[in-house]
Amino acid sequence: MMxxxxxxxxxxxxxxxxxDLGLLFTPAEERFERITxxxxxxxxxxxxxxxxxxxxxxxxxxxxxxxxxxxxxxxxFCAYAILGDDTFVVPxxxxxxxxxxxxxxxxxxxxxFYAGHPLRLVEGSKVGTLCVMDTRxxxxxxxxxxxxxxxxxWVQDELQMRVLSEGQVxxxxxxxxxxxxxxxxxxxxxxxxxxxxxxxxxxxxxxxRDGSPLSVIMVDVDHFKGVNDxxxxxAGDSVLLGVVASLRAAVxxxxxxxxxxxxxxxxxxxxxxxTAALTIxxxxxxxxxxxxxxxxxxVVRATLSLGVATTAPAPxxxxxxxxxxxDRALYQAKADGRNRVAVAx
Length: 345
Description:
- By secondary structure, this protein is α+β, with helices and mostly antiparallel strands.
- It contains 12 helices and 13 strands.
- It is globular.
- 44% of the residues are buried.
């Protein structure tokens, strides 16, 4: 029978500190995603997470090799990891009475090995873990454990830095946890269409106040229907996840990425003129063109068409007009042969 982890003695203080971070149910960010990729690579693991343990759930701020965004706290390995000060290791979950009947062990993602290092804030609260997992029993040597501790320290530093733009922070501050969930695209963990439109509205208002330019990029995955038709929808989902990861890696930390349609994305670039926006768009295009997306149906290549539009600070600037301008540029990029960037006139 599965044994649920007891609550930490500072549970009320701990959960309050977690919520004060303002990171629960927020879009995925490259600064955390890169750490989970490194943890998986350095420790030779198929799965790695930045997991934040709230009162009833654990929510994944970053995930490598895991499609879920959260699980109940009652079945969380990380709920055990935050009870101690050092790395919590389960060499073989099927041999551990606390976990052998856990649905995360007996079903997807079939965890057999777990190692999680608690994430501690400056004031002492342990709000989650950096953890790695495997579907087979494992052991970590001291060098591996030291690597996990080092990467967890990096996560701790990032947790206490606010890097989202003013518009995104304000939007999140006005929403409770339930409403935040409805603003995220469940597959890509980017803003959904309604949310990215609201982010743009807020950034336009800020642009008018402080006199700075603002740019947007409309992004479309070329011939995406052919990917789904040839390789299947699971492969298509893998390509979209890879594309979004490339977009996040190409933008600045405070830029906003939103899924605008099936294979279409809107990127909002505060304080960004047309020259800088064109550079970012070309960086996006090049990153995706160079990628080889691993899917269950084999390796898939993809390219992007992108449209860039910029507005000078002006009280009359509006989101629909800026989006239409970027969309016209996007269609010009497609008409010119795809896998290219076009700029709105």
